[in-house]
Amino acid sequence: MSTQTLPKPDTRPEGTDGTDDDSPKMFHYVRKNKIAESAVMGTHVVALCGEVFPVTKSAKPGSPVCPDCKKIYDGLKPGD
After folding, report:
1. Residues annotated as region Disordered (predicted)?
2. How far apart are CA 20 and CA 23, in angstroms?
3. Which of 6, 15, 46, 64 sits at 20 to 30 Å (Cα–Cα) from 26?
């Protein structure tokens, strides 16, 4: 007698792949003191690149970063 693990059947509606359509494609640099306020109150933040949005997710290590934000951030002096 042997056992086998069967794959979980996909029960999502046809045409969906299970990813959030509103999930960010990349993450932006914003002022640290504004992140919690935006997450709790729903206020919008302004990224270094000028993008304006409410904080809904936090970046994980290895997440894609906005190239414009990264370029601006790398050009800042320490403490700016």
Report:
1. 1-25
2. 5
3. 15
Secondary structure letter of residue 50 according to DSSP: S
Instruction: Enter the tokens of residue 7.
Output: 């794959």
Distance CA(80)–CA(44), nearest Å, equals 21
Confidence of residue 32 (pLDDT cuts 50, 70, 90): confident
Neighbours of 34 (CB within 10 A): 14
CB distance 57 to 80 below 8 Å:
no
For 25, residues 6+ apart whose C-beta sits below 8 A from its C-beta are 64
User: Tokens for 62?
Assistant: 């290895």
